[in-house]
Write a structure and sequence with these properties.
Layout (H helix, E strand, L loop, with lengths): L14 E7 L2 E6 L3 E6 L2 E2 L14 E5 L5 E5 L4 E5 L2 E5 L6 E8 L2 E8 L2 E11 L2 E9 L7 E5 L8 E6 L4 E4 L3 E3 L5 E9 L2 E11 L2 E7 L19 E3 L6 E5 L2 E6 L2 E5 L10 E6 L5 E5 L2 E6 L2 E3 L4 H6 L3 E4 L5 E5 L2 E5 L4 E4 L13
Antiparallel strand pairs: 1-2, 2-3, 3-4, 5-6, 6-7, 7-8, 9-10, 10-11, 11-12, 13-14, 15-17, 16-17, 17-18, 18-19, 20-21, 21-22, 22-23, 24-25, 25-26, 26-27, 28-29, 29-30, 30-31
Length: about 350
């Protein structure tokens, strides 16, 4: 019948999720696996390919169905004649993420000379043209700027200086039909680097919305959002859907709603979301794929589909839903499922499609 706090040795980790089970604390360590913290200390990493969150490559297409990719070093390539050829990126910026939009291919970049700035480009012909650049401000207490009265007496307030965010990387990008950009951010705070939600910016407004966990810092319309969201789908009008370790998260109508185990997502952890045809929202969940329709989730799928456990989802031109993971590919044509494994594929382990 007591409670105490003890300062233990620092755990070298990039933790994205923790859960207490009895007298043990289990930590999800980004890109390394899971490990247990017990009274005797921290245990070894336990990992599998299905636990890797951060991706080495991203895939996106332009308005002419040209396929592009970007690697962890910010190098962009275009698929042509059976291979990828380098594509020049804008000078003076660090490219991080690609996304497809209704007007083509988009690129998110940071500006080394201004570590609080995000710049969005759209590919125009053979070059990337700037769309919007905005600065991200922090959640600290603004500093009041004052001007001294040379004749003595009271000083005059001349404005406030809001602390900036120090951007480290931009894990992913989403583009809506009106060219609003949704950019995931990794930031440096108090000497530590961590994910901190998503920044929403547009050329149509100077306001920048920073959706993240805790007190929203950017813009009057900022909403609560898990810091470690993995992906975004903007195809449902008025809503943004995100995947996260606590479920699928929906932003819209001035609300943030998390769909976890309590709201019907089996296994709670969601690695990808997809707005499909017929207003169904598909999720790649820990216990297999499912979809949200008419205020409820449906996970009754064939056993082979559940066993495939896709990590990534995509919609093709005819409306078929595709899933990819460590056990190959699955496809749903609206009526039947098709499974593609090692018997027909050159490789059977995928992280994106």
């Amino acid at each position: 019948p007591g409670f105490g706090i003890a300062h233990l040795s620092r755990v070298g980790t990039s933790a994205s999720f923790t859960k207490t089970l009895g007298r043990e604390v289990w930590i999800a360590d980004r890109s390394r696996g899971v490990r247990a913290l017990t009274e005797s200390g921290i245990g070894p990493h336990r990992s599998s390919r299905s636990l890797v969150d951060e991706r080495d490559l991203q895939i996106a297409a332009d308005e002419r169905s040209g396929v592009f990719t970007i690697d962890a070093l910010g190098r962009v390539g275009r698929f042509r004649d059976g291979g990828f050829v380098p594509v020049a990126t804008p000078e003076g910026v660090r490219a991080w993420a690609l996304a497809s939009g209704n007007r083509g291919l988009y690129l998110a970049a940071t500006v080394p000379t201004d570590r609080a700035a995000i710049r969005i480009y759209r590919r125009d012909g053979e070059n990337f043209a700037p769309v919007v650049e905005r600065r991200v401000t922090g959640a600290g207490t603004p500093t009041t700027l004052v001007e001294a009265n040379p004749e003595g007496g009271a000083t005059t307030e001349t404005g406030t200086l809001t602390p900036d965010v120090t951007l480290v990387s931009l894990p992913f990008l989403g583009i809506s039909d009106d060219e609003t950009a949704w950019v995931a951010v990794r930031v440096e705070e108090n000497g530590q680097v961590r994910r901190k939600g998503v920044v929403q910016l547009s050329a149509r407004t100077e306001e920048v919305l920073h959706h993240h966990y805790g007190q929203p810092a950017g813009g009057s319309g900022a909403l609560q959002l898990p810091d470690d969201v993995n992906n975004v789908d903007l195809a449902q009008s008025g809503f943004a859907w995100f995947s996260s370790v606590v479920g699928a998260v929906r932003l819209g109508n001035s609300q943030s709603v998390t769909f976890g185990e309590a709201r019907g997502v089996r296994g709670e952890v969601v690695s990808d979301v997809l707005v499909g045809t017929g207003n169904r929202v598909w999720v790649a969940a820990a216990e297999g794929p499912g979809y949200y329709f008419r205020q409820t989730f449906e996970f009754r799928m064939p056993q082979a589909v559940r066993a495939a456990r896709p990590l990534a989802l995509a919609l093709d031109a005819v409306g078929d839903v595709w899933g990819a993971g460590g056990n190959g590919l699955v496809r749903f044509d609206g009526t039947d499922w098709q499974i593609y494994g090692a018997d027909v594929l050159p490789v059977s382990s995928f992280v994106d499609l």
